[in-house]
Amino acid sequence: MTKKLFLSISVATALAFATSPAALAQSKGGQQFLKKAIEGNLAEVQMGKLAQEMGTRDGVRSFGKQLEQDHAAANDKASAAASEAGLTPPTEPNKKQKAEYDRMSKLSGDKFDRTFVRHMVADHKKDIKEYQQEAKKNDAASGYAKDALPTLEKHLQAAQSLEGRGTTGSR
User: Fold this and answer.
1) Closest Cα to residue 148, out of 77, 79, 92?
2) Which CATH architecture has domain 28-164?
3) What does the domain layout of the chain look like in residue ranges?
4) Distance CA 76, CA 87 (A)
5) Residue pLDDT, tens place only, 36-78
6) pTM score
7) Cα separation of 96 and 68, whole Å?
8) Are 94 and 71 in contact (CB under 8 A)?
9) Among 19, 88, 100, 171, which residue's beta carbon has the most beta carbons within 10 A?
10) Contact criterion met (CB below 8 Å) for 127 and 33
11) Per-position DSSP letters for 27-70, written without gaps between them
């Protein structure tokens, strides 16, 4: 009887922990997603600032400001989700993102505008796919992904609009 009771308690405890929000938040995949999302947000904030400084078109500069503001706010939410998941948030973009920033910072004029907009379209398409996949899960990262998707989609539409206009507009 004691063995059965002990086994029952052990199984019940294991099930309770396996389905608790804390246990779900600790998933390795969720932590990896949040790490990548935070690095991406930090990179987008920097790219947004760069577009404001180096963009020659009003639309590019305005989009840069939107990126900076929206991704800074998203990063606050992602960092909170990371803390909930027991992850220490990264404090800077990854090496690839830094290299892309460095490459963009060497461009100027219309070449900067065109390259920046193309990069934002491609980057946001890739991010939306990753966020959609994460949003289907059930952990701290999925909640963040669901909340962030509408903003990413808005950014993609804005970038595609700039791309469609050939980044034309007032200087």
Assistant:
1) 77
2) Up-down Bundle (1.20)
3) 28-164
4) 14
5) 999 999 999 999 999 999 999 999 999 999 999 999 999 999 9
6) 0.81
7) 19
8) no
9) 100
10) no
11) -HHHHHHHHHHHHHHHHHHHHHHHHHHH--SHHHHHHHHHHHHH
